[in-house]
Design goal:
This protein is mostly helical. The protein is built from 25 helices and 4 strands. It has a 4-stranded mixed β-sheet with strand order 1-2-4-3. Strand 3 and strand 4 form a beta hairpin. Helix 6 packs antiparallel against helix 17 and helix 9 packs across helix 11.
Amino acid sequence: MHAVPRVTKTADVPAPQGNGPSRPLRVVLADWHRWAEALGVLLSPAAAALVLRIRLMAPIDLPDPAMHTTYIVDPRQVVARYAAVYASTSRLRESARVGFLVPARLAYLAFGAVHGFVALRYVFALIAIVPIYLLLRRMYGPPAGVVGILVVLSSPVIITAWGTDYPDSAVVSYAAGAIACLAMPCSLRWRRAWLAAAGGLLVTAVWSHGVAAPLAAATIVGYVGVRLVRDRARLAGDLVLLAGVAVAVTGLLMVGSEILLGHANFIATTWHSVRYLSQASQVAQWHSASWRWAPYVAYLLIPPATLGALVVAVARSGRTIPMPVLLIGVMTTLQLAVYAWLQFFGTVQALEQHYFSSTLWAGTCVVFAITIAELARPLADRPLARWLPAAVVLAVPLGYEADPHVPAFRWLPAGAIIATAMIATVLAARGAGRLARPVTEDPDGRPWRPLAAATAIGASIAALVAAALVLTVAPIPSHPTLPGTVGGDPPPAYATALGGNASVLIDNYRIAAQLPLIAGPAYPGEQLVIWWPISQPGFPYREDAGMFHGMFNTLSNGPPVLSKSGRKVLSTRRPAEVLLFARSAASFRAAVRALAFYRPAVLRKAALRSGPLVLHVWLVRLDRYYHPPRA
């Protein structure tokens, strides 16, 4: 990463007249231009949300995101109630994801549940797009920087990751920003500042979710490998800086975790969870031993197809690949290779679980934006045509929103054809770039044809973006249970990330976030179990139940009938409280009567409303197991 010297021409400036020095008009205009540019970047997430109609929340596929919401709303209650009973199965591991939980808790305390959710996602968006914009602007110019912003803010995978409280929402942003910072073209004076920023983002990603650990390791290995080949000077000092930043950021997170979450030692919790989840019984439960599920998941073709497109876009006979491009290509390739190894040769569900695989899209989006910027090089000196790629990247998702219907298909043959088409469009765009040669470079002496070049390049980029979007949003075809696979997880809602309606999702989140507050503070060991219409088709209470760790704290059948297995749960767990919730409270009185053996007392009744949704909640104390908190 070497600085590119800039030559500034100076002109004779007349001596200032009047009462004081005056600034030339062009300098004033340049300052205003820089401020307007910075403001545009900072406001771009809000503009994209309005123009692209980005879905601000995503459907809850599993209870896991809501388990993290609980720590955002009332972290100390979870530890007080369940620390002992969770210990053997390491179920407090969600509390250790402090790279996400600490900023999320701060946002909640500052703005409340829904507004805090949106504010934090705005910060996540800026963490991703600001470094990417600066990277592409320095390499290719402002239009390429806008392309980078649009690629990230129109990615259905990243939008969906941001849409829940699962920590991949933080990892995708931290990783994208870190990759851009590591590859940032800059002077030696600023290189270590960018390295420090990258190190801070990477270690925060690791402490957001364990799946970021192999992602960060692959990133650092790729960075060091390229530096060893291209730029060994000061590498040892740079690595010491990265290690020091990692230690410092970890220490800051410990302080923040102690203050905001009530515990500082998230490292031990993380280590215990790794050991527990590495057991053979846990691996068999969560990780498919067979690869047969993969050909049904079209969006997994995007990372390798995008890397292939980048190779075709930058390959030139006798041309040295720029250092930033080489860094990003190598780092992203290693990320994909590590995830593939963990999935198909290891014991981590890095690709079959979309909450995990989504983190690959941090590097994939940067690669995709660089590919488009490389294809747009022939238009760089045309004042209007150079903005065509950004317009195309914006127009394609808008066109999709007009008719968001993509059929389901597998890797073969449709997926492979579309992925190959991505490579073919890059070749077409490179061929179209030859139309922009000056006459002196054209052996046939043909005149320069900028309109034809711009049209052909724009059409090729449009086809590239459209093919990638189709692969991303294509539904997973229905298929029978495959041998050697765990199955069971719903597919991600990528198809509705653009143009989707999140009003009901927001209403449900607002209601669910109030449930820990209804339960109130707890003394150590004051367990609470939930009782709700678990057998209702469609599992509509997934987020509500997830606020109390889903099935682990759920009575086995819906109210008002207390089954034999439900009585066993109560006698084994000896909870002090039962939380009843449902869309209707009609069965609650009978449910309380069914608890007569446990001497129930209704402590609180509430009807939580948001928009058209209502959730009736009764908090019942079981005096048979309740005891007053000790002083």
